Known about the structure:
Elements: E1 9-11, H1 17-25, H2 41-56, E2 76-77, E3 80-81, H3 100-103, E4 109-111, H4 115-125, E5 127-133, H5 135-147, E6 152-156, E7 160-165, H6 177-182, E8 186-195, E9 219-225, E10 236-239, E11 246-248, E12 255-259, E13 266-268, E14 277-285
Antiparallel strand pairs: 1-11, 2-3, 4-5, 5-12, 6-7, 7-8, 8-14, 9-12, 9-14, 10-11, 10-13
Amino acid sequence: LGVTKMPGVVHDPANKKEETQVGSEDAVNKGGAVKSQSPPSDQQSTLKSSVNDSAKLLGNLRMDDSFFEEPPAPVIQGGYNFDEWQWWKKREGISGPPTKEQLANPTSFEWAGDRAELEKTLFADGVVQLGRVSEEWLQLLEDFCATTPFNDVLSLGCERREDGYSACGEVLAAPWVKWMEELKHAYSYVSLITAFPTDGDDQGWHRDTPDNKESSDHQITLMIYITDVRVSNGATQFRRIASKDEVSFPGPRGSVVAFESSRTQHRGLANREGAPRVLLYVAFDD
């Protein structure tokens, strides 16, 4: 197989040059909530008076103003509905998800260098640019997502939504299962992380453990870029374990980053661009 080199970008808190350059090249679209219109104030006043007169007959109660408020409108982030938007399109003629054999095609993944050296970097730094998947594999992933319901959906910080697969998502781990077996790890879960445009804050630093502390239960997570990833649209930052340097790995669609999610501190940056940024998480436990 061929080799693709994709270096990371080191973030120096005292030097914002790299972030500034990216931000100046990309359009920024800050999203906001869309509110429903309320009835005219004279109608609200008449309604309140009528209800409050009736309430007096039931114990001299008085309705709070919140009683008259309309239900909240769907949250719109940069023009995208947080609860409904998805990255895929169902192709005509696709009736079901792809098979494990299709997804496990050995030509679908290309290592970024010598595998032994990549492993050494992963366990020393806690994170490494692993390689990339083919466009054909990404199309199979799209077909899978378009035909397979999620097991659970979570809202994360920094306008992020996580759509999770449990057992049914194991087929998506197929290109890396044998490698993980050699490292004595087995499939745990798969999820899609969608970062919507926002003017909110970056995510807080964390590990993927219940108490945010380094865990003896070892987990390795692969991040597959479904969209192009830049610092300006929310690239994940990592703190290397030994040096504590802060680094991210901007890259094109199809890039794959591996990190020790139970050891390595990481956070998603806020998406300052005008479109959602989407990643596939594939997690393996020891």
